[in-house]
Design goal:
With 217 residues, the protein is an alpha/beta fold. The chain is built from seven helices and seven strands, in the order βββββαβαβααααα.
Length: 217
Amino acid sequence: MTRKLSLTVDGKNIAVHLHKGDLPAGVSFNGPVAVDSETMGLSLVRDPLCLVQISDGGGEAHLVQLDRASYDAPNLKRVLTDANRLKIFHFARFDVAMFMRDLSVITTPIYCTKIASKLVRTYTDRHGLKDLTKEVLGRDVSKEQQSSDWGQAELSDQQIAYAASDVLHLHALKAKLDEMLAREGRVEVAQSCFDFLPTRAALDLAGWEDTDIFAHA
C-alpha cells in the first residue's frame, strides 16, 4: 500500500511516496542515497524504529512505515546494506544503531554530514540539520513535526512532508562539505570517522553510549 504526496522544494516538485512495511520491489535508486529515520524517542534501549526515509537526490523521496511486529523489510534492508551504494546521513550514529538493533543490518558505506560539519565548521557549535542547511545552502528546514507521534497507524500529511524534507538536502550538503573538507585537508580523517560509525553504533548498543573508551580516565 502506497500513499503519495507532492512537495515543492526550491521551486522543484518532489513526489513523496509512503510505503507500508517495505519498499516495493520495483523501486530503484541512482547512485548514493540520503537516509534518515523517525523513532518514538531518542533512547536506544526504549524507543522503537518507526519510519525510514530514502532519496537519491532526484525528484522523489520514499518513506517506509515499518511493521514493528516483525521489521520484515527485505527490499529496504537490501538498500541499506548495499556495499556499492553510499548512504548519506545526518547524525548517522543514531540511525545506524537503530537499524542494527531493529532491522538486524549493518549499514555501510556511510557519509555523515554532522561529522563533516564538526570537522570543518569549527567556528560554530551549531551542527544541527536546520542550522547547517541554513548556513551552507541558504535553505530553511522546518523541524515542527520532529517530536510528534511516529508510532501512530496513519501519519499526517505534515509528518510525511517533514520526514521527506530531512533527506532532500543531504546530497547538496555533502557536495558543499566535501569542498570544505578538501580545503581544510581533512578528507582522510573524515573517511576514517565514517568507517568507524558501525563500531560506534555497536558500542552504543552494548552500553558504552556515554563512555569515551579512548579517554585516559
